[in-house]
Specification:
alpha+beta; 29 helices
Length: 765
């Protein structure tokens, strides 16, 4: 026997009796009290409305969703809901509190019979004390939301991060500050910058590497520091011109190999001409690229004259810091001398390239070794260890936040995940996936979802069979933008088109300018389907009239132009063209056409009038014949409307066929209606006059009625002596009646003076 009740029971795997309600075309489990939440782990997942939803893009507290999403994959799944529901119910004395969705949680409702419950209760008291609320009987979401405020006056809070304020020793505070300066900081729960074990190890590794690097130079000072304390500056001056001097001696060797190359090695005159027209600068790239000095085979490098202007300053520095200390004063430099200088700096160059711990170089070698020689590292490691000893207590504080938030938010999540009560309920509460309301074309659409990528969303969402309009929304002068998909489920689509503007109100009641950018068309209502055939015919007639009018206008223009040309030609030649003869065939064709139309119309009217008192049913049948197929198709498609593809395209995993039938669609999209008890003045001072159309329609109706009465002989009955000509239909009818009368009269036969009366034989039925 088919079940007729809308609510029925279901025995779960643990013997728990569930209650379901039929809504949206599928069975939705009812969350009636805390016991339902407690037993969610035994509810068959096939009976859940959704299996997964994203943690972003929904109207829900992001922090709560992050606390539920323990694996941090950005999605909430059935195991996440089951786990957190079981955890919350174990920590509350009365799980029915979850259905109240309260902002506060009474401390005496925390279950202190378990170790975890006692620890969380102690942490709740600690939080209230740190906020100056000693003796408070309840704790709120606001109390636990700002952890910086909770830990503001604590140096040790279990996160393993030590700020400068964690110690009173000025030397240790200085080392922590230097570590933050060089290696960066980690934010402590108190909101202050600090360092953790990783930062401390990185800092001291750099200190040791830098010290060891300098130790290498100290062990080989004569080789690495050929010029003593001036070696670093001398090497820097040498390094600036090293490649250019190499280039000079390579060119001289090539010129010595083949004197024909000498001109090319010194650059061609054309290259000087190309830069001569410009405003020259000594440091210009074109000049700097030229050789260091004129290339002559076997010639040493001049040091203080005849040098490339772009390199004079650097060569002077090289001369003073390198050449003079090593070779003494001289005007030229041979290749052998240059190679000797290069050799003197080779050990320093190798050591300099092997630099390690450069991040701490700014501290200076003395400070680096001072820190390494102190007990700063051991002291800071001890502070970090002391802080971590409080990790469990600090985590309990975090658990207090999780408990208080879930006490407020869990039930709301369940009625948007386990079932879709918020979506299908009669109250004004919107589901978490509804982004707001779109006002456009005298309608308010409440099924609007945020969309990140319209093209991607549009590949799946049209399978919902819902009329979808994608809108780009802009707020505050174009600085804030978002995209939505709005479902139109009532009214019609006559005035919906790309480019139309409306206003979108989000869940925070902020208004956005909305513009339709893309539409997926589907039936909206039965009413639209009823009128659609007539509208299509009317549009077709309008298009045909417009085409014929345009063609007639063009033909008239061509005729007028041709006539004017002919007149001018006739006037010029003095000959008048003969008028075309009247074509009798055209008249005959027109007569045949008019006769055919008249006959067809007459047959239709005859069939209609022959219905007698059934004529209203004939009108109804004609209307159904025209609008019926369109209405049936629309009805079938409207029955297939489904919420699932719209949400699936946004990352949900909807587990059922959540229907949007015709009555529910009328709720999702409300059409403009006058308020109750409103007064409506039907007089429009700017309305177009209807008298002309009324008179024209009246004349057409009267003429049609007169023609019908003439055609069917009514006028002949009313005015038998008026001499009105008979219609062909009336003449045929009278002839048929006369023939019938003749066959129905008895005939006589005389034989041998006897008259025999012969009665007509009636046909047997």
């Amino acid at each position: 026997m088919r079940r007729t009740l809308s609510t029925f029971g279901f025995i779960g795997s643990d013997g728990y009796k569930w209650s379901f309600v039929r809504s949206g075309g599928f069975d939705q489990v009812k969350i009636r009290h805390g016991e339902d939440i407690k037993h969610l782990e035994n509810l068959d997942p096939k009976l859940w409305a959704a299996l997964s939803c994203p943690t972003r893009g929904v109207h829900f507290d992001n922090r709560t969703l992050d606390l539920i999403d323990t694996d941090k994959d950005g999605r909430i799944r059935v195991p996440d809901i089951v786990s957190v529901s079981k955890w919350v119910c174990s920590l509350l004395k009365n799980p029915d509190l979850l259905l109240e969705e309260s902002e506060t949680l009474a401390l005496d409702q925390i279950n202190d019979e378990t170790e975890e419950g006692r620890r969380i209760l102690d942490s709740a008291h600690h939080i209230l004390e740190s906020l100056g609320k000693e003796g408070a009987k309840e704790i709120s979401v606001d109390d636990v939301s700002d952890q910086v405020r909770i830990f503001a006056n604590t140096s040790f809070n279990g996160d393993g991060v030590i700020p400068e304020e964690a110690t009173d020793d000025p030397e240790i505070r200085r080392v922590i500050s230097e570590c933050i300066q060089i290696c960066g900081s980690v934010m402590d729960r108190s909101g202050r910058p600090g360092i953790d074990t990783a930062k401390l190890e990185q800092f001291f590794a750099d200190l040791q590497a830098y010290s060891d690097w300098w130790k290498m130079a100290e062990d080989s000072s004569e080789e690495i520091w050929p010029l003593g304390d001036r070696t670093a500056d001398a090497f820097a001056a040498f390094d600036e011109v090293d490649a250019k001097i190499d280039d000079y001696f390579a060119r001289t060797r090539l010129a010595a190999y083949d004197h024909r190359a000498q001109a090319a090695l010194n650059r061609h005159e054309a290259e000087y001409l190309s830069i001569a027209a410009k405003d020259l600068a000594i440091s210009a790239d074109e000049v700097a690229g030229f050789p260091l000095a004129q290339i002559v085979a076997g010639t040493p490098l001049p040091l203080r004259q005849a040098l490339n202007p772009a390199w004079v300053e650097r060569m002077e520095k090289f001369y003073e810091l390198v050449v003079v200390p090593i070779l003494g004063e001289q005007t030229t430099l041979t290749e052998a001398q240059y190679l000797e200088i290069k050799k003197r700096f080779s050990a320093y160059a190798a050591w300099n390239n092997a630099k390690q711990g450069g991040a701490v170089e700014q501290l200076g070698l003395a400070r680096v070794r001072e820190i390494l020689a102190s007990n700063a590292r051991a002291t800071i490691e001890g502070l970090i260890a002391e802080d971590k000893e409080l990790e469990e207590a600090a985590n309990s504080i975090a658990m207090v936040e999780k408990l208080v938030r879930l006490n407020r938010d869990l039930h709301r999540l369940l009625i948007n995940f386990v079932n879709f009560r918020d979506f299908y309920d009669d109250d004004d509460e919107m589901a978490i996936f509804q982004a707001g309301k779109l006002y456009l074309d005298q309608r308010c659409c409440s099924l609007c979802v945020k969309v990140d990528d319209i093209a991607k969303h549009g590949t799946l969402a049209p399978l919902s069979r819902v009329y979808l309009a994608y809108c780009e929304c802009v707020r505050r002068g174009g600085t804030e933008k978002m995209q939505i998909a709005a479902a139109f489920t009532a009214g019609d689509s006559d005035n919906l088109m790309v480019g139309r503007n409306g206003v979108f109100f989000d869940r925070d009641n902020q208004d956005w300018d909305a513009t339709i950018v893309k539409i997926f068309e589907n039936p909206i209502s039965i009413r639209q389907a009823f009128w659609s055939p007539y509208k299509r015919v009317l549009r077709w007639v309008e298009e045909q009239i417009a085409k014929r009018a345009a063609a007639a206008d063009m033909a008239a223009t061509e005729t007028l132009t041709s006539a004017a040309g002919s007149a001018i030609e006739s006037a010029a030649t003095g000959q008048v063209k003969a008028k075309p003869k009247f074509d009798v065939g055209v008249v005959a064709a027109l007569g045949v056409a008019v006769g055919g139309i008249t006959a067809a119309l007459g047959a239709l009217l005859q069939a209609f009038f022959n219905l007698g008192w059934l004529m209203p049913l004939g009108i109804l049948a004609l209307i159904l014949l025209i609008s019926g197929p369109s209405m049936v198709i629309a009805w079938l498609k409207l029955r297939q409307r489904n919420l699932g593809p719209i949400l699936d395209a946004n990352g949900w995993a909807v587990n059922t066929r959540a229907k949007i039938n015709i009555p529910f669609g009328a709720k999702l999209t409300s059409v403009a209606k006058l308020p109750p008890n409103s007064h409506r003045d039907l007089r429009d001072p700017y309305a177009e006059s209807k008298m002309g159309r009324i008179w024209a329609a009246s004349i057409i109706v009267v003429l049609a009625a007169v023609w019908a009465m003439w055609y069917f002989g009514v006028l002949h009955k009313w005015f038998p002596t008026a001499g009105i000509p008979k219609s062909g239909w009336l003449e045929r009818r009278e002839a048929q009646q006369a023939a019938g009368d003749a066959t129905s009269q008895p005939s006589s036969l005389e034989t041998n003076g006897l008259r025999i009366l012969v009665e007509p034989v009636q046909p047997q039925e």
